[in-house]
Structures are given as C-alpha cells and as structure tokens.
Amino acid sequence: MTPNRTTRGWLGRAATGATALLLGALSLSACGSDGSASEPSGGGETTQSSSTGANQAIADLVPADIRDRGVLRVAVPDGSAPLASVGDSGKPEGMDVDIANALGDLMGLDVQITAGSFDSQIPGLQSGKFDIAMGEYYITAERLKSADFVSGWRDYSSFATRADDDWKPATAQELCGHEIGVMKGSAEEASVQDFNDASCGSDKMKIDSFPDQAASFLSLDSKRIDAVVTGRGPLEAAAKQNQGFKITGEMGGGPCAVAVARTDGSADMLEAIKQGYDALIADGTYAKVLEKWDTEYGAVTEATIYTADSTPPDYS
Fold it and tell me: pTM for the complete prediction?
C-alpha cells in the first residue's frame, strides 16, 4: 500500500527551473509500509454529498453510528498522485478520492475527505478521527494489530534513475552499494531496508528516508542520491510529463488496501466496503476510475477482507 504520490501549493515556491518541472510530476509514492506518527495534519479537505445512488443492501451494512452521522470520514495521503494528492484547487483528488466518493454514494453517505501525511493515517483511525484510510496500504502483520483492511488494487515498486546516466538497475541486488532514496513510512522504506540487511552483505546501500516523495526526487535531481525506489504506477504517470529520469526494474508488490478503523461495527463495515468494491467492479465504475488516473495496471477482479486473524500477503 500508494503512498506520497501531484502538484501541491508549496511546490512552486520550493523549486525553480528544471527542478520545478521535474517535481511537478513527481510528488509520488507506492503502497505504504508500517508507520506511526502524530495526529494527521490536513493538507486539504473536501466533502461530497451523496447523489442518492445508494445500494440498499450495502447501505444496510454500514454501522449505526456512521449511518446516523450520515458522513463517511476518509483519510488520504496529501502527495500520492495519481492515487491521492491535493490538486491546484486545494482539494484532494485522485484514484482513491474517486473510489471513496463512489463507495460513499453506494452507502448513501456524504463523504468527507481529509488529506494529510501518510504515516499519520492509521493513528487517525485509532483515535476515531477517520472511518477509513485510502492509503493503498500493504497488509502486514504489524498493521493487522491496529486496523482491518480491504484490498481493491495492487502495486509493485520500480527504480528511478537520472536520464543523464547509463545505470539501469533491473533487480534489487543491483542497488547494493548505491545511495537510495525512499519515502518515510512507505512500503519501499521497509522492503529496501530488509533487502539491504539480508542480501547486500558488505556492499550495503545507504538508504535515505525522505518526508515526502518530492524531496527524494529533488535529491536525485541534484545527484545527492543514485536512485529512488517507489511505485511503478506513479512513476509511469510522471514519466509522461518529463524526461528527467528513467524507469527500470521491478521489486516486490502485491495487494494494496483500504485501512478500516477497528470498532464494534468493523465486521459489517468491512463487508460494506468489500461489497461496494465488487459492485463498482461489476458495473464498470471501477474500470473508468482507473482509466481516468492511468492506474489500470493494478486492477483486481474482486475485493478481499483482511482482519487480525488473516495471513498477510507475501510481498517479496
């Protein structure tokens, strides 16, 4: 679970010239790994009213407290384009935002979406601030101690290197001995570190964790690091808009999921989200959303529920 990934207001103030061009397309990430942080700080918020397209069977599954409130509270990352980011309008946008709004519509609920830092989302669920987090999470044993999940997409990681060099790493082994950038709290931070410890021997990578994906690409552009490891989909989207880097290789990957607050009504909420995904897949809405955001490569044919007793997927 990406994870983060478009244009944000600070970007134009923080970067100029070629660097600004590069970063405008590169505030990116992949599915997120284990992370914990303080309460979320919002980077944008929007509320969409239900268009009364409710599916009664799905709406009936929504726990009473959420149904009585009439609002589905959703956290998304504030810089994970094309999955979720704060656009030029100052409002969240992306694949996860559109899916969240479609799920809320099926549930007969208004949808309040708050964008913030990726690694603060699960703490927000635990504190009762949000009902779900659309962070495209990898489902890990550690995460399953804190929340439940519904997978509705998949992702894998690739490597970005500068276009002006001829290094084209195809496997994680070829990263050994190099300085590598990852986003703090992302799946790549964990998987690259695990690989480094297990497989690089004496030729260790130097791994730099950045607060957001844009910062990692600034470092790549200025030649302070040799490569960035992040999600393939966001890299493909960014590559369409600039020629500053090249994409190679594949590492790990697997199901990405919505995190669901663990409450007395969790079982029903999980089923509502699963049935919502399956309905969106069946009626073609899911495919249209993925096509809109160039994320079709991660499409699945049905959603899957993961709870505390589930065996996590293998992302190796």
Answer: 0.72
